[in-house]
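SEQUENCE, STRUCTURE TOKENS:
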Amino acid sequence: METHDPRQAMSGEKVKPSPAVVTGSHPAPDNVTPLPSSNGDTPEKGADKSKGGTTGPFSLDLLSFKDLENIPDLEWHIDGFVPKGGLTMIYGPPKSGKSFVVMSLILALDHGERWLGHPVVDRCRSLYVALEGRSGLKMRSESWHEHFGHDVEAGGSLIQTGRINLAEHEHRDAIIAAVIENDIQLVAIDTLAKATPGLDENSAKDMGLVIDSAMRIQQETGATVILVHHTGHGDTHRGRGHSSLPGAVDSSIMVKAGRVTGELLKDGGSPLPIDFKLEPVGQSVVAVPRSSSSPDEDPDPEGTREDLEKLRKALEDEGQPLSKNALYRRVGGNRSRITGSIDLWVLRGYLTKTTKDQTQFIGLPGQSVDE
């Protein structure tokens, strides 16, 4: 299997597919652009569907270690949780609120709203492949927009509720075509089980087909791909099925018992967990962060108070807010942990976060970015 780096994917050009018509087992709403049909053209000329690849000679894409310096740095949709252009798994037990958390993520990215208290770094349009709970989608959407005060018509994300099978190359290519045609930057497939009918989750071969399909969507479009998955029946601390899936993703997020935990980030650590609740709004519920107690009463998870002191000293020495990258260089240590500490102390009011010219600055209360 090819190695996978979301930063490399972000630097590649998108492939323009041939247009295709629309299909699906359920009729799409009038205001939603559905997926192209499995009878439409494939995204690449000369694609060999029987092998899932393209015809023609194969060549290696060789780099020197010096060339690695030109690969763009990792970028984020949500700092520490969802990398841009990567493969992410969100998993948890049934009835844990996964779909509410995923919908809140998609709508937060669409409208630039905070996601469970965390700011959106980069807004984007998403394709939500919602294969479970179709009947409740309308109420969930209405409740979210009512709670956060956003106009539903201002959003640009799309929903697909018709049948999808990631193991079928025509379905995969239809997703690729829809992503490119509609300028989609994130695809969420909810759930993996519903998108892989007839496959054995415990089979290395079957799971390999699924991983290859998800990675092909990501690599040919540059979009982030999120797979929503269930935990095992006996082990609720990992996604069920073959271990090749958690080994293939760039980030992994567990939703369990009212907590969102970023458990795995390649080339980095884990952000601080987020406690959330499902708050009744209208005819449904909305995933929102739990209110914390006063800052002085809150616990100090994994030495974050020590991180705060380092951050304070760096900002006091500078006398003004610093960009995140500059602050990381001053403080040192694990970048993902420092990111989590920054977000924690911003939420508690000890640090401030502002954006200027699309750059985030961290400061102390009362400090402002120089004009």
Q: What stands out?
A: Residues 204-221 form the longest helix (18 residues). The two ends are 49 Å apart (CA to CA).
